[in-house]
Amino acid sequence: RSLNKNGRWDVFGFLLRLIGLVKQERPNAMHGYLCTGNILATLISPLFPGMRIAWGVRASGRDLSYYDWTRKALYRVECRLSRFADLVIANSQAGMQYAIANGFPQSKIIVIPNGIDTNCFSIDKDSRRQARAELGVAANQKLIGVIGRLDPVKGHETFFKAAALLARERQDLLFLCIGDGPTDYREELVGLSKALGLADRLIWLKARADMPAIYNALDVVVSSSNSEGFSNVIGEAMACGVACVVTDTGDSAWIVGDTGQVVMPNDFQALKTGIERALEQISAGSYNGWRNQQRILNQFSVTQLVLRSEDALLRIAR
Fold first, then answer.
1. CB environment 125-144: b (16+ within 10 A), e (fewer)
2. Residues 216/127, Cβ–Cβ less than 8 Å
3. 55 near 89, Cβ under 8 Å?
4. Which of 8, 24, 30, 251 lies 20 to 30 Å from 299 when distance is taken between CA atoms?
């Protein structure tokens, strides 16, 4: 049931609507998500004795210098209020350690990884052909993509530098960048890509509703982040059978396991090498996309997410 929060500053009106709904429903437990939701759930909890509070945290190794003063202030408030939560659910091991390092009580934190919808994200050869035709990718070309919001933590600069080196050595490679972000930062990245000589080899797309088809169109997905928690992009790409090259940040290395290439963050030379290895495996026929998909089914399915979350919430509700 949407309470129609209208932007960052719609706090007091939203809070009144939230209190009204809780009075009506009288839940045994309330589950906040992310900083604002966690804080608001805790602030109203004294009005409802007996209602248990669970938090959902996603931050991992976040460099707050990238963000404005409001986000910094809210995170400091969240850290101070964390002791009042009955349960804190992190979606990554890295996120749990980051929270503990910033003052969250270790005894209250558990890890429940994100779940990937494998009914939606799966290997689809027909989608691959159609999407590649739409993007203008020839059958003999390899398409390498980076997917995610345009944000400094996603390491687009590192990706573009690695792509530029690869583009000079191989004419059969195309690159794809998908994501939305602030206009000025997007223009900065576009300028960088042109300066690196990628203008004719790089396809730019904003956020898409047909991501399963886009994943299938790709030969390699790159996660070049310098900070991550649990990367849905990696999990979704693997569910679609795509080879992944990831930086060793957050839980990315854990997600790919032994199915992908793992390199150090902020190192474009290492990222280039990782992409080359992935392409070599594809060319040699030694890469198995079904193995990627099976790892997601076994370790990170939606069913497992639901069961783990249900168990955790029922335990505090009792």
1. eebbeebbeebebeeeebbb
2. yes
3. yes
4. 30
**How many CB atoms sit inside 10 A of residue 47's CB?**
10
Q: Write the pLDDT tens digit of every residue in 21-77.
A: 999 999 999 999 988 899 999 999 999 999 999 999 987 766 556 566 777 888 899
Q: Interior CA angle at 306 toward 117 and 47, to 5°? A: 125
**How far is 243 from 222, CA to CA, in rounded Å?**
9
- Taking a C-beta distance cutoff of 8 angstroms, is the pair 150, 178 a contact? no
Cβ(201)–Cβ(174) below 8 Å:
yes
219 residue type, one letter: D
Q: From residue 11, how far is each of 14, 15, 79, 82, 189 by CA, in Å?
A: 5, 6, 19, 20, 34
Q: Confirm if 207 and 178 have CB atoms less than 8 A apart.
A: yes
% residues pLDDT > 90 (the chain): 86
Structure tokens at 100: 């503990």
Q: How far apart are CA 262 and CA 252, in angstroms?
A: 8
pLDDT digits (tens, 9 = 90+) for 170-226: 999 999 999 999 999 999 999 999 999 999 999 999 999 999 999 999 999 999 999
* pLDDT above 60 for 135: yes
Which tokens belong to 88?
A: 């804190």
Print burial letters for 268-299: b (CB count within 10 Å at least 16), e (below 16): bebbbbbbbebbebeeeeebebeebbebbbee
d(CA 45, CA 19) in angstroms, rounded, equals 9
Phi and psi based region of residue 48 (left: phi greater than 0; alpha: psi -120 to 50; beta: remaining): beta
How distant, in Å, are the alpha carbons of 37, 71, 77 from that of 154?
24, 18, 25
The pair of structure tokens assigned to 36 is: 């604002």
The sheet that has 243-247: what strands, in order across it? Answer: 202-205, 173-178, 142-147, 220-223, 243-247, 261-263
**Assigned token pair, 85:** 């939560």
Both structure tokens of 196: 């690196």
